[in-house]
Design brief:
about 80% helix, mainly alpha, about 270 residues, 2 strands
C-alpha cells in the first residue's frame, strides 16, 4: 500500500475511533463530545500540516458541527429514560441560543492560541471544582429564575460555542450547584448541546468562507470529511454512553467527567507552552 494511501486510511480510522469515544463520552457525561473532538482534531490537523493560524478554528467549527449527530442521539436516549428537563430547556433555550451566536462570532475571528488557552483554562477550573468541591456544596436548593437564569444560559452558550464544547462542561456543574440530580443534569446538557452545535457551526462556517490556508473540502471552518467520519463513530457509540449514565452513581459521573477535563486541559496547555 502506498505511504500516502496508508496515511489516509490511518487518518480516517482515527477520526472514526475519535467519534466513537466522543459518542460514549457525550452519552455518559452530556458534554456533546467536543471535550474529546477538539483536542484530537487539533493534533490530527497539525499532523497533516494544516497551518496553525486556522487549525484551532477548524477543530472548533468541526466539533460544533458533529453535535448535530452526537447531541441528537444522546438527547433522544436520555429523553427515553426521563433524563431531559424539557421545561428548563424551554426557559433557557433562547438565552443559550443568543449566547451561542455571540460566542461563535467572537471565536470565529479570535486568534487560535486564544481559543486554545480559553479551552484549556475552563476545562481545568471545572475539573478542580468537581474533584475538590464538597459533595454537599450548594449555591441554593433550587435554580434561580428570571434574569439570573437567562444570564447563566447566555454565558454557558457563549463560552461553549467559542471553544467548541457542548455545554455540559459548564451546565452540568452549574445545575449540580443548585441541587439538580446529576443524571438529569447530564441528560438535559445533552439536549443543550444541540442548541449550541447547530447555530455555532453555522457561524464558524460563515466566518471561515473566504479564509486562506484551509484544507480542501471545508465549508468555512468546518472540515466536511472529518465531520462525516466522526459522526459515523458517534452514531453507534453514543447509546452505550447513555446507558452507562443511568446505571452508575452520581459520584462516579463527576469523577469520570473531571478526569476527562484534566486530560484535555493538560494536553492543550502542552501544545501552547511545550
Amino acid at each position: 500500500m502506498p505511504e500516502s494511501l496508508l496515511l489516509l486510511v490511518l487518518l480516517a480510522a482515527s477520526l472514526v475511533v475519535t467519534g466513537a469515544i466522543a459518542g460514549v463520552v457525550a452519552g455518559f457525561l452530556g458534554v456533546g463530545g467536543g471535550i474529546v473532538i477538539v483536542p484530537v482534531l487539533y493534533l490530527l490537523f497539525g499532523a497533516i500540516g494544516i497551518d496553525e493560524q486556522v487549525r484551532m478554528h477548524l477543530a472548533v467549527g468541526t466539533s460544533l458541527a458533529t453535535f448535530l449527530v452526537t447531541a441528537s442521539v444522546s438527547a433522544i436516549g436520555h429523553h427515553r429514560r426521563g433524563g431531559v428537563d424539557r421545561d428548563l430547556l424551554k426557559r433557557w433555550g433562547v438565552a443559550i441560543f443568543l449566547g451561542v451566536v455571540a460566542g461563535a462570532s467572537l471565536g470565529g475571528f479570535a486568534e487560535g492560541r486564544v481559543l486554545t488557552g480559553a479551552f484549556a483554562t475552563l476545562a481545568l477550573l471545572v475539573a478542580l471544582h468537581l474533584f475538590f468541591g464538597h459533595e454537599d456544596f450548594r449555591l441554593a436548593d433550587r435554580l434561580p429564575s428570571g434574569p439570573r437564569l437567562q444570564a447563566a444560559g447566555a454565558v454557558i452558550g457563549g463560552i461553549s460555542a467559542m471553544i467548541g464544547i457542548g455545554g455540559g462542561t459548564m451546565s452540568v456543574p452549574y445545575l449540580a450547584a443548585f441541587g439538580y440530580p446529576m443524571a438529569r443534569a447530564v441528560g438535559t446538557a445533552a439536549a443543550i448541546g444541540l442548541i449550541i452545535g447547530v447555530p455555532g457551526a453555522a457561524v464558524f462556517a460563515i466566518a471561515g468562507l473566504d479564509v486562506p490556508l484551509r484544507p480542501d473540502h471545508s465549508l468555512g471552518y468546518v472540515s466536511l470529511p472529518a465531520f462525516a467520519l466522526i459522526s459515523l463513530g458517534t452514531i453507534f457509540a453514543t447509546p452505550f454512553g447513555v446507558r452507562l449514565a443511568h446505571r452508575v452513581g452520581a459520584r462516579t459521573l463527576k469523577v469520570a467527567f473531571a478526569c476527562f477535563l484534566v486530560a484535555t486541559s493538560l494536553r492543550m496547555f502542552w501544545g501552547l507552552f511545550g
